[in-house]
Amino acid sequence: SIGSSVFLLHPFRSGDILCSMKQFIAHIEKSIFGPDYYEELLSRPAAFSWKYYWSFTTLLAVLMTIVTSLPLIPQVNRALDELPPAVLAYYPDALEITVEKGKVSSNVEEPYYLPIPERWKGAVASSTSALHLAVIDTKSPVSLEQFRAYSSLFWVAQGVLVSEDSNGGVRMSPFDDPALSFTVNEQGIKNGIAAVEPYFAFAAPLMVVAIFLAFVLRFALNLLYLVLVALFVLLLGRLLKRSWKYGASYRIAMHAVTLPLLVEQFFFLLPGGGFQIPFFTTATLLFVVYLNFRKPIEPKEAPLPPSEPQG
User: Fold this and answer.
1) Sheet holding 97-100, edge to edge
2) CB 157 within 8 A of CB 138
3) pLDDT in tens, 113-171
4) Per-residue pLDDT tens over the stretch 195-247
5) Residue 276 CA: distances (Å) to CA of 102, 216, 224, 307
6) For residue 52, is it left (φ>0), alpha (ψ between -120 and 50) or beta?
7) How far apart are CA 58 and CA 28, in angstroms?
8) Residue 96 burial by CB count (10 A; 0-12/13-18/19+): exposed, middle or buried?
9) Is the peptide bond before 111 cis (omega within 30 degrees of 0)?
10) pTM for the full model?
11) What stretch of H or E contains 103?
């Protein structure tokens, strides 16, 4: 019965968290299949459906965050532990790049090439034909032909950082601030790493929060999708000889989307991110509505007229 909705409408009033959770799980189960539940739903206030949707999707976001974060946290921590020594091992000991009032110079013979790190070569090779991570040449004039000849992802030129844009041309990011003056060398990199290293401890928690917010946003945007789907629910209701209005159709969709969302998250957790089936969510949602409303409403018997008194 829909009457056991204490968890949704007054989540802290019962004082029994376990009992409330069982009631909430019952709401989830009946939103998948519960013809009587759906019939009673039409007489409930709209707030009931909104609170159900947010309770369900928040719980789902928490569970998905836990499942997706657990394997990522040790990877992030391990990557951050390996990052400082990897950066120091990669950067050439003698290389010093100086930016003085927006003008760039170096203490090495140019052009000077920085190789692509070994761990990046596979990913870089799949997206570009570049052979170098960066080239330092502060003397040659910048041109597309020269940039392509260097076969490098970045070109540190005098006053600009050159990279390829999405249209096959070049993007130039100028160091045009006259007050911009600094030096990049091995000691400076050590100092920079030492300054940011204490914040590495926040990386994993921030990642978990970001994943949770991403799932919450995804489920919030799903409400816009239901605006359209509710029209199909309204049409299906007409075919099932139900006289729903659009508002009732939308609230029915907020419950009927329970099963599609659960299946979607299961697909998401499959290796490779699962697979996409066109119109799966819409078709499954309408199937849930059909299952729960396919039984026709039994007409109420008209009361018998009072019998006439015998003379």
Assistant:
1) 103-106, 97-100, 182-184
2) yes
3) 998 888 777 776 666 778 888 999 988 888 888 888 988 989 898 888 888 877 767 78
4) 999 999 999 999 999 999 999 999 999 999 999 999 999 999 999 999 889 99
5) 49, 20, 20, 66
6) alpha
7) 13
8) middle
9) yes
10) 0.75
11) strand 103-106
Cα separations in angstroms, 95 against 110, 215, 236: 11, 44, 70
Helix (H), strand (E) at residue 164 = strand 160-164
Per DSSP bridges, beta strands 132-136 and 152-156 are parallel
The 8-class DSSP code of residue 134 comes to: E
Let me know: does 214 contact 59? Beta carbons within 8 Å. Answer: no
Give the Cα separation of 54 and 220 in Å (integer).
Answer: 9
Q: Residue 293 phi/psi, 5° resolution?
A: -125, 10
Q: Quick one: pLDDT at residue 14?
A: 45
Strand order across the 152-156 sheet: 112-115, 132-136, 152-156, 160-164, 170-174
How many Å apart are CA 43 and CA 185, to the nearest integer? 71
- Is the pLDDT at 309 greater than 60, yes or no? no
- Residue 256 φ then ψ, to 5°: -70, -20
- pLDDT for the residue 305: 59
SS3 content of the chain, % helix, strand, coil (to 5): 60, 10, 30
Instruction: Dig out the tokens for 184 from the structure.
Output: 């990049």
Token representation of residue 207: 């990642």
